[in-house]
Amino acid sequence: MNKQISDDIFEAIAALNHQIRARHHQASRDQGAAIAGMEFKALRYIASQTSHQGATQKDLVERSGRDKGQIARVIGNLKKQGLVHAIADEQDKRISRLILTTAGQQLYASFKQVNNEVAEQAISGLTLAECQTLLGLLSKVNNNLATSKNQD
User: Fold this and answer.
1) pTM of the complete model beyond 0.85
2) Which domains does the chain carry?
3) Is the pLDDT confidence value at 34 over 80?
């Protein structure tokens, strides 16, 4: 494949990611929090697990591919900002379950709203068929990278 087109595609994806992250960062500042990147991902994962039984630090390590120390710092920052708190597991008191606080729920709701707005803005003017094609192509790109990672 033409190296220039692959570079252009990669740059377009990076620019899109930058746009999304910048909007998340602004939403975080608007809410009086200071989180970005991995902290947002952790907040999102904890929110998805709260209705079940709560996420654990081990869950976040496995899900993110980050090491225990990195995740401990992320969780520590989220706790310090009052966005998550830990409760003891009912079956195993050695395990702490992470739950969003009210402030964490509000910030997460703000992020979800930003995501919805950005997503709608990003695809405005595209037909349903174009959206389906784009989704299929991005899925292929993602699978190519995932397959390549597993082979390394």
Assistant:
1) no
2) 3-151 (1.10.10.10)
3) no
